[in-house]
UniProtKB/TrEMBL annotation:
Gene3D superfamilies reported in the protein's UniProt record: Probable inorganic polyphosphate/atp-NAD kinase, domain 1, Probable inorganic polyphosphate/atp-NAD kinase, domain 2
Protein name (Swiss-Prot/TrEMBL): NAD(+) kinase
EC nos: 2.7.1.23
One biological process term in Gene Ontology: NAD+ metabolic process
Amino acid sequence: MKVQHAEEAFGSSAGRYGGVATDTSAAIQGSCPRREDVGNSGTCSDRSAAAKTAATATINRSDTATTAAAVGRVDDDCKNCTAEQRRVRKPRRRSGSWPRTRSLNAPSPVQQFGPCGRIMKTSALVTTIQDPASQRLTWAKNPLSVLVIKKVRDMSVLPPFIELVRWLTQEKSMIVFVEHSVMEDTMLSSNSGFMEIREKLNSFQDSKDDLTDKIDFIICLGGDGTLLYASLLFQKSVPPVMAFHLGSLGFLTPFKFDNFQQQVTNVLEGHAALTLRSRLRCIIVKKNEDKDKPQPNLLVLNEVVIDRGPSPYLSNIDLFLDRKYITSVQGDGLIISTPTGSTAYAVAAGASMIHPSVPAIMVTPICPHSLSFRPIVVPAGVELSITVSPDSRNTAWVSFDGRNRQEISHGDRLC
């Protein structure tokens, strides 16, 4: 398995994280304006500096408290100092570099190492890392066709679906595609508002009709599962996806349906931000099949799950990275997820969440029978291979985004 490419999905504008911290440990500027009235005790700034030097030299808690109290007395005794000059702040302590960075993105890769070392320039060399906040949508030509996918078996989605489809066909004069099952839905057939626009809709059947060059962008009404289904329909380039939150989970559905007219209009006019999401290209190589024969592949947005299936025994799975053996996983299974999928099954299994703009692959064991194997993150450019261990007592089962579940036996390879 390896990352194929980033897929475009609309979302809220990706903001910058963190912020430049204010340095509160700066010394008090200025000295007492009437230095001649201070006498032999010296200026306020001199005494503050001396007290701070003493505070630096202390190594136990009681000495530090005494020194801090002394600093306060020195400034309080000076009647000619202003309130700002008498106020002394303790230095703020924090680990790491100072100041803190304002972005989650790494700087541009360094291409020079010392006086002679250089990075060999290739076509795949990445020279800059784009800030997600600067990724904006643009259309090469005006979009004319839209695919509308709604959550199945949910009556609460029917009124928004009818309202959206009517607005797209009547107000925007767009070509609207829906699933073939929608046209035969009995709940929609009894709705007079839907029957008025039914003849204007175009239908398609999953796994039969190719929508690659027919759809300009996609609108999803539902939860994360609806968006995953939309990604599964396009095994090549995925059109921009606009997902409205009308389901149970909303990690991938940032839009509210209340003012959908304005939001869809902004998208059609090209005033929208983009969140690029990567997918995994997965291929199953069977033991008895011809190796020269081209193997079918699947592009997965969330994760690939390898588990023990109905067997009562623990699964034994060998993991390879770029054809090099890494480890054997003994447990209930293994999860290979994208940054998008890190908020799904992987996070429930104890993994961390990864920002969708981070090019990485998450490897998470499911209930491992080991104290040493924990979730790991590998670069997006590597190739992962998974096989059933020769000493395993049972086979394994694999599913792709919860679909296309199939069995892999000894000698088969998932890559």
